[in-house]
Every structure is written in C-alpha cells, then in structure tokens.
Amino acid sequence: MISNADRFSAADRSWDDVKPLAQTLFDAAPDRAIWSTDWPHVQYRKRMPNDAELLEFLFGVIPGADLRRRVMVDNPSRLHNF
Hints:
mainly alpha
C-alpha cells in the first residue's frame, strides 16, 4: 500500500524522505500496489494533512497516468473483486 507517507515521514510537508521507500514498494510489485488514505486521520499527532497533499505525494512517486490508474483503479478492483 502506497499511503501514509505523512505518518512515516520526519518532515511536516512533502514527505520527500519516504518517497524512495514508496518507489521501492511500487517497483517490487506494480501489479499489487494500491493507494489509500487513512481518512479521517484519527489519533494524528502532526499537522493534519490535506488529502490533496496526499495525492500530490502519489503523483510524485508514481509517474504517468497509466501507472497511477493501475495503483488507484485496476489493482484495487482486482483485489476487491469489483
């Protein structure tokens, strides 16, 4: 799952320090990677993320519309039998 960068990062915004981890996870299993948020972000101890910022993180990690479609549509559809 390519998500929760905001929780794992030492940074308050952009979360660049966890991008290599997210890219490694995606590269290891592009047909199994999915994206989500943990909205409504309960028990959050940092600045509350804007969900648009979380999407920007995904766009920074997964280049190209086809790959993002795989992560956001195709893989979850297959996982959940949609």
